[in-house]
Amino acid sequence: MGSRKALFFDVDGTLLDEHSKKIPESAIRAVQEARRFGHLAFINSGRTFCLLEPIRRQIEMDGYLCGCGTHIILGERELYARAVPPETALHIKEALKRYQVEGVLEGRDGCHFSRERSRMPQLERMRSDIQELGYASAAALEDEGYEFDKFCCITDSHSDQKGFFQSLEAEFQIIDRGHDFWECVPKGHSKATGLQKVLDYYGISLEDAYVFGDSTNDLPMFTYAKNTILMGHHDLELEPYASFTTRTVEDDGIAYAMEALGLISRGA
Prior knowledge:
alpha/beta; eight-stranded mixed sheet; 13 strands; 8 helices; five-stranded antiparallel sheet
């Protein structure tokens, strides 16, 4: 199998079947086999740590890169953590209100929604899903005294989208996730910065890193890494940077790619 590799997996639409909300058994077996061969496997997700709890129950990994590189946990060790500064947090809350944008502030221990019901059904669905997981914080978005690492927002015809983004562009990378949904990550952080911190920690070269993804927040690690595995169902922006395109999640895309690339044995 050669030198030790580091494998980095996005969650939604890559490792996780978004319909069943489960990781296919073939993917679990493939990751376990790779780790038995001595390779390292990591989640590299836009989700903050609390929202990875359902994934941690399904599959064992060597570490978790959370919130687009804002929080990194390797085993029992916290390698890196960076919360949004209090003055910036206040600015975000004021801007959401001023520009009629609605969102959720994503922390390591919980997610913070407004006390008021949103006019946007998509946000209310998010609230319901996160409440069901048990990670909708009792501290509302409007409250003080809590930390968060990044945030997501939704705009509609009532929103001053341009004004809102201009007010944040100095401090945040704003990722278009489609359907007027935006992921906002502190500048200097991405799935690529998290990946490099982990490679540096373990002394693994970029040539021995393999990244698996499907959506626009995977673009930084796709433009940075050498071995880039694109899922069968994916955002078109990633296609120019893919070194290998695999099957969909449901069609055992993770196991298929890992076998084809020699990361595990055939039929593992």
